Prior knowledge:
The structure is a single chain. The chain contains 7 helices and 8 strands. The protein starts with a helix and ends with a strand. It has helices spanning 2-20, 49-65, 84-95, 107-120, 152-165, 186-197, 216-226; strands spanning 33-39, 71-77, 100-102, 124-126, 144-146, 171-175, 203-207, 235-238. The longest helix has 19 residues, at 2-20. The chain has a 5-stranded parallel sheet with strand order 2-1-3-4-5. Strands 7-6-8 form a 3-stranded parallel sheet, with helices on both faces. Helix 3 runs parallel beside helix 4 and helix 5 (152-165) packs across helix 6. It is of the alpha/beta class. Its main location: membrane. One of its GO terms (molecular function) is peptide hormone binding. It is found in: Membrane. It comes from Trichonephila clavata (Joro spider).
Amino acid sequence: MTTLFADALFFVFCSLYIQFGVCTAQSVDTIPIRLAVLAPGDETLPFAMHKVVPAVLYAVQTLRRQGGRPMEVLHRDTECSSTYGPLHAFELYNSGLADVLLGPLCPYVLAPIARYSSVWELPILTAAGQNDNFDFKEPHYRLLTRMNGSYSQIGLIFLQVLKKFNWEVVALLFHNFEDRTIGNSDCYFTLGAVYTALGRKSFYKDFDETNKAMNYEEMLKEVSQNARGKSNLFPFLVE
């Protein structure tokens, strides 16, 4: 996985080089590009710092061996915090330590930093940002490049599935956190795009999969009653 991610970064970096004319032997610049990785230090997360940084270093070293422009890599622990993450971005910008931001990877950290980046003229490359609110480049996210697409594409695919099977009535069932102070789950953001694509008319029900007192039987009965129409039954579950 690390190698695949590094190869993807290599492709993006080289595309930038070609754009600025520095991916050829005729225009080697000795001034390094400074890459700042913004990721959480929590090792339980799939996009933790110790997983991301080695891939970035591998891509940088590969480009350097091929005669590309030198690059420096530094990193900051965002803690997946909408407070500490932006503070690190401010520190990097004010100190002039970064030419490109890689990350953040947590949506609540990415949103404010992406808005600041368009003012700072500091580009962002991230594997996150699938939330459909990032689809609108102007005015806030014009320097944001998302390497994994967006959840809105899932909404479009979902509409095609409904059309294929002539399903008309849909209920959305998804995991979300009861504790709203920690924000919403990835399931919430995924089905949020589907809900928007469906015209914001579908019945939806959220549940916290960590709540051991959850009555799933009653919840499924409620969803079933709201997913039945004259044509078909199609409850959609994300967990």
